[in-house]
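Re: your question about 2OG-Fe(II) oxygenase

S., sorry for the slow reply, the queue was backed up all week. Below is exactly what I fed in.
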Amino acid sequence: MTPPTTDAARFTQIADALADPGWCLTPDFLSGPEVQSIRAAAASLEAQGAFAPAGVGRGRDLLVRAAVRSDRVCWLDPAARDGAIGAYLARLEDLRQALNRDLTLGLFSFEGHLASYPPGACYRRHVDQFRGVELRTLTAILYLNPDWQPADGGTLRLYTDPDRPDHYETIAPRGGTLVTFLSVRFEHEVMAATRERLSLTGWFKRRG
Ligand SMILES: O=C(O)CCC(=O)C(=O)O
Ligand SMILES: [Fe+2]
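Result:
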């Protein structure tokens, strides 16, 4: 199949895949230069000290547990529309509206962060929802790693088959690739990489 070249076509493809099987891989959602611009914005946020060790859970449950998750994150202002990150968030907003037209997910708001995994860092198998709170509906992960090679590791394991709990899809964190999946449905895991692994991960949420 030829990859779609317009956002309208990409969004239709994502909506179809989310309807069944519930997840979608979109290589080249961003071009190489777009990836580089977001990387530059991330480097400048890093230089300003805007990244902090990621927590697990929320509120009083929020723990920084390196054994579960050892990335560092920088939460983003979802309303930002300036610069390379703002341009990407604007596209995600278009995606949200397209999905709300095509599916009945009721996506209402967005929260997201840049995540930097140093070499050796991982994120153990988990589901993107906090216990008892089912607001996170759709996960959207954008990878920001140019020239990623298989030997670099750092794959995302997406456990796609409830009948085969150990079966997973292997997704390389190649620059420009977007992965979307229904947050409740799929357990997933980040494997350790041999080099820094940068991503912009976000969640579309239902109204609370
Ligand atoms: O970066 C990835 O591939 C997945 C990240 C993740 O699972 C998360 O932040 O919840
Ligand atoms: Fe996750």
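Residues 126, 128, 188 surround fe (ii) ion (ligand 2) (CB under 6 Å). Helices lie at 7-19, 32-47, 83-102.

Happy to talk it through on Thursday.
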